[in-house]
Write a structure and sequence with these properties.
It contains three helices and eight strands. By secondary structure, it is of the alpha+beta class. The chain has two domains: 56 residues, no CATH class; 94 residues, no CATH class. It has a three-stranded antiparallel beta sheet with strand order 1-2-3. It has a three-stranded antiparallel beta sheet with strand order 6-7-8. Strands 4-5 form a two-stranded antiparallel sheet. β7 and β8 form a beta hairpin.
């Protein structure tokens, strides 16, 4: 199931508002857009019209979009030789320490073998690797394949259709 899309500014015909205690549930008619529990406080919410809730919601969305427009992401890569992943005991899973993972994709050696991904000389099954990546839920990801002896180097990237006869 794909992750719901980020909510946007709404008009009254695009959303349904349901009051639930101190929350306004903002549900878009388009079910591919995330429904949000928008906390306003019980007393404030009880005194607001749907249009006033939409106005506050749209101010919230405008503020979020302004912060996002100013945000400049710098991906942190753990230096070679330092651990890229660590075990998070409370969540009982491995987690990346930075925003870049240097890893080697290993194939199978037979019918019953499962492929795996090696990071820091530790082998992760595809499910363990996917669970590790889930700590970045909601983020995007680019995967660049490089020779295994060039994991520490940033490759040149060329945007084009691949040659059907090879790379």
């Amino acid at each position: 199931m794909p992750m719901p899309r980020r909510p946007h500014r709404a008009s009254p015909d695009e959303i349904k508002i349901t009051r639930e205690g101190e929350y306004a549930l903002i549900a878009y008619a388009d079910d591919t857009i995330a429904t949000t529990r928008f906390q306003l406080g019980a007393e404030k919410l009880a005194a607001m019209t749907d249009q006033e809730i939409i106005d506050v919601w749209n101010e919230h969305i405008d503020g979020r979009d302004a912060v996002m427009a100013e945000y400049e992401h710098v991906a942190v890569e753990v230096p070679p030789g330092r651990p890229q992943v660590e075990f998070f005991a409370k969540g009982n899973q491995w987690v990346p320490r930075g925003d870049v993972l240097r890893c080697i994709v290993m194939g199978t050696s037979g019918e019953d073998d499962e492929p795996f991904i090696t990071i820091d000389d530790r082998d992760f099954t595809p499910m363990e690797f996917a669970r590790m990546l889930s700590t970045f839920g909601g983020w995007g990801m680019r995967i660049v394949f490089v020779p295994d002896d060039e994991l520490h180097e940033e490759p040149e990237i060329e945007v084009r259709e691949p040659d059907p006869r090879g790379r």
